[in-house]
Amino acid sequence: MGKPVWGTCAGLIFLANKATGQKTGGQKLVGGLDCTVHRNFFGSQIQSFEADLPVPELASKEGGPETFRGIFIRAPAILEAGPEVQVLADYPVPSNRLPDSDSSLDNKKENAEEGGKVIVAVRQGNILGTAFHPELTADTRWHSYFIKMSNGNVGEEASSSSLAPAEVDIDITTNQQPRIDLPIFQ
After folding, report:
1. What tens digit of pLDDT does each residue of 77-101 get?
2. Which candidate in 38, 133, 156, 167 is catalytic?
3. Which terminus of the chain is less hemmed in, N or C, by CB atoms within 10 Å?
């Protein structure tokens, strides 16, 4: 219907035109996002992790650091993206972390191995997709990006914004870093 949509994690899978790694019979997809998503690419629930993602587009449009702390919970990954899809974030994947052999995935896995990365955030027109969970962080830049994208003004300076990225205070006297609850993917 042309309305803005943002799919995170399972929502990304539903928005994809094609999904792999599904159970027999598959999952009905809404579609609209010209990409191939691999369901549970990073593994099961116990293999959930956090990672710093380079996000130059997000940083240039919303300010803040050049990275975003992504929280991946039984996360999918985008293995292929069409020409109209803008890649907003990718993540390096060691070859030993790729999924077990599946004849339908062989070519896609080779592509992921060649580049050593999988795509974890994309935009196509008014559709935004993230394989991670931005809503579980204090950093609101993805939310601000989506709202501006929905209003057709991503990249424009907001005259007054309550959607500015959240400030994260680190106590420099004790050098305390932000709490990390999930393991780091390596």
Report:
1. 999 999 999 999 999 987 655 554 4
2. 133
3. N
